[in-house]
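Re: your question from the hallway

Yes, I did run it. Sequences:
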Amino acid sequence: MSKRFQESGEVLRVPGDKSITHRALMLASLAPGRSVVRGALTSLDARSTARVLRGLGTRISPLRGGAMISVDGRERFRTPTRRLDCGNSGTTARLMLGLLAAHHFRSTLTGDASLRGRPMRRITEPLVAMGAHVHGTGERLPLTIEGGDLVASRWTLPVASAQIKSALLLAAAVAHVPLELDEPAPSRDHTERMLRRFGFVIGQGAGRLQFEPSGRFHPAVFDVPGDPSSAAFLLAGALLAGLSGLSVGGVGCNPSRTGFLAVLRRMGAPVTIDDPIDLGGEPVGTMTVGASPLAGTTVPASEVPALIDEIPVLACLAARAEGITRFEGVAELRVKESDRLTLLAQNLTAIGGDAHVEGDDLVVTGSTRPLAGRVVTAHDHRIAMAFQILGLSRGCAIQVDDPASAAVSFPGFADQVEILRRRQ
Ligand code: S3P
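Structure:
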C-alpha cells in the first residue's frame, strides 16, 4: 500500500541548480559593479567556483545556505598570485579555462585527485585553436593556461558536452569574437540562455550554434531555480519508498535537463509538472510523482545528454523494476567524478543485484530480492546519493562508504532522505 505524501500539503525544496550557480557567479564576476545571486547552491562545488573567482580578484560574499550572494565584478580578472584550486568540480575547471583563455596572463588550475584524473584536452585543444596558450600537453590538471588574442573560430564538439560548449562560448564572449560550434547532440543550454540575457546573439539550427559577440556583461540579479538533478533523487526515493504524491517545488524544468522524467514515465511512474513560471529565462515548476510499480525500459543514446547526471539514480531504480533496463551509449560515464559505468555495475552486483557493462551500455536487471552490503563510491557524490536512495527500498540494507560526499552538490541530502524514511 502506498502512503500519500501530500496529505499535509507539504512540498519539498532542493538546493539551487549547480550548473546555473557556477555560470551566474562567473558571469557576475565579469560584469563591472555589484550583482546579486539569489537561491544559489552553496555546496562544495559552488564554493570551488567562488574560491577560484576570488583568486582572480572578484569579491564574493560568503556562500551560506539561504543567503543572497553579492558579487563585485570587474571588466577583467586580475592576475592570480597562486594556483586556482577547482576542488572536485569539473564545471569550474572547464568553464574557467574558457574564461582564462581570453585573459592575457598565466594561471594554473588544479583540483582534487578525481578532477586531476579527468580529461581536459577536449577543452584545451579548441582553446589553443582559438589562440590561447596551454603549457604541456593540456591533457590533465594541473595545467597552466595563458590567454591570447583569440580569433573567430569554428569547432566540432567530439561529444555532446555542455562543459566544452560553454567553455568555448565564454571564451568567445569575453574576447568578443564570433564562434561556430557543431554539436553531435544538444546538451544543457544554461550558458546560451544566460548569454542571451546580456545581448549576445546565438543562432541555433541543424546541430550548429552561431555565436555573435554582440553583448556586454552588466551587473544583474541572477535567480537560481532548484536543481532538477537533486530533485531526481527525491522523486526516485518516493518511488522506492512507496510514497505517493511527493512534490518538489521551485525546480528547474529546462528540457535539456529533465530527460529523466520521460524515463520515469516509461518505467510506469506518473510524474507531473505544475505551477510553471519563468525565472530569469529558465522554466521552473513543481514536480510530483505518484506511487507505482516500475518496469524496465531502454534509454537510447539520443536521450543520454538530457539525463547524464541522473543515470546513477535511474540505474538504482532499474534494480527494483521488473525486467531489464538498458542505458545505451553511456561511455561518458567513465570520465565523470568517478568511472560511474564500472562502479554502478560493480556495486549493484556486490549488493546482490544484477548489472553489467556491455560495450558502452549499462544493463540492469531488476529484482525484488533484498539487496544488502557496502557500496564503494570513490567519493563520487552521485554514486553515494543514488545508493542511499536505493536503501529506501523495502528489504534493502545498504551502507555507503562516503555518505558525506553528497555535500559536493546537495547540502542537506541526509535530512531529506530522513524525511522520506520517516514517511514510509
Ligand atoms: C555540466 C555538464 C555535464 C554534467 C555536469 C555539469 C555543466 O558535463 O555532467 O555535471 O554544468 O555544464 P559534460 O559537459 O561533461 O557532459
